Amino acid sequence: MLNISQPAISQNIHALEDYYGAKLFERSSKKVDLTQAGETLFNYAKEILDLHRAAKRAVSDLVELVTGHLNIGASFTIGEYILPRILAAFTARFPDVKFSVTIGNTEFVHESAREDSIDIGLVEGEVDDPQLQVNKFLNDELVFIVSKNHPLAGVLIKPEEIAPRIKDMPFIIREEGSGTRLAVEKVLEDLNFQPSSIITLGSTQAIKESVEANLGLSMLSKWTLRKEIKLGTIKPIRCCAPITRGFYLIQHNEKFQSRACAEFKKFILESDLSSILSY
Residue 37 CA to chain centroid, in angstroms? Predict the structure, then answer.
């Protein structure tokens, strides 16, 4: 039996009994006890309260659940060598978010962000565009590379010596509109080096295969060379202090940001991506 220590019987008790058409309480001068009908009602009331708490928890969990679909645009270097590992780590945390990834050069991703046809763009090199939000999310290093049998493979030479040592070698470079090409051209300008022969290829993988075949030398992101450097099929030329650049996340200023998009952006900008990419 439930004892209700109340000095007086309130009007609400009468209203409750009138509503259920049954006597729910046994009253005395000192206490109020439940009748059998009252105990039955009390048990149902407890179940209702338990269901209410469960429903509230379920709705809360649903609100906190990150779901939805993201359209991501990525430049070739990022889309082929960096984004897959980032997506794997993000999916482990938010398994209900689905993705569509479009890969193109930096110019293409930039235009896609301007046209608001993607939720997020990931590009090489800073973008100067008032219509876009631009946030740096990762540092990169550009590395001169040659085949494993080349005389300069693994050699440490001074920056001022690099131009005369490689001036007669074909230089393999990405196509116009590529963020990597723009960065490499800036490096060559700073080194006061003008290649005597240039070979243009449309993908990083094609460049790596060409370097391995000793077709020429090139300069690529360190993130694209992990396997080849580890296997020794491509060797770096160590000619100067690290040549760095940034990778950037871009979004249209007026783009609606879903919860999934917000969480992905937060993950990209706040996670230790170097550890994610280095395992």
Answer: 59
